[in-house]
């Protein structure tokens, strides 16, 4: 073993997959790229996500308490990175990147037609937002596109490189402690 830079520890535990977060404030939808999120609970389904106050989407999420998490697949990797490299303050990202907003069922933020899955969310806990930028979201409706054949997602390594999902290994018969997850 050798020393590792503590400022780079995040690269060792990057969550997965890279997602797109849509918000809508004052009738204006926006999209941001996010890789810092985590599942927190099964029922109700809770998702923790970190969004910096410096991100344009922060203000909309904080004000409306609603968003959609779109899960892109490998065919959208470059576009997803490009979305993260500009601000919705300056660019209409739906128009700029040729993305299709669809009406959500329970929130005002739009679904992303190009994503294979979308999760409508409402903020249920803001207690760690000021200190950490951590919003706790409750998933209130989820969608998948059965026509979307590609299902491989991609994960950030934290240094501009990504890992693409690959081989699946079925160990369901060993999942005895949490059978409700199967």
Automatic annotation (TrEMBL):
InterPro entries: Flavin_Rdtase-like_dom, Flavoredoxin, Split_barrel_FMN-bd. GO terms for molecular function: FMN binding. Its cofactor is FMN. It holds the Pfam family Flavin_Reduct. Residues 12-156 form the Flavin reductase like domain. Keywords: Flavoprotein. It comes from the Archaea. Belongs to the flavoredoxin family. This is Flavin reductase domain protein FMN-binding protein. The lineage of its organism: Archaea, Methanobacteriati, Methanobacteriota, Stenosarchaea group, Methanomicrobia.
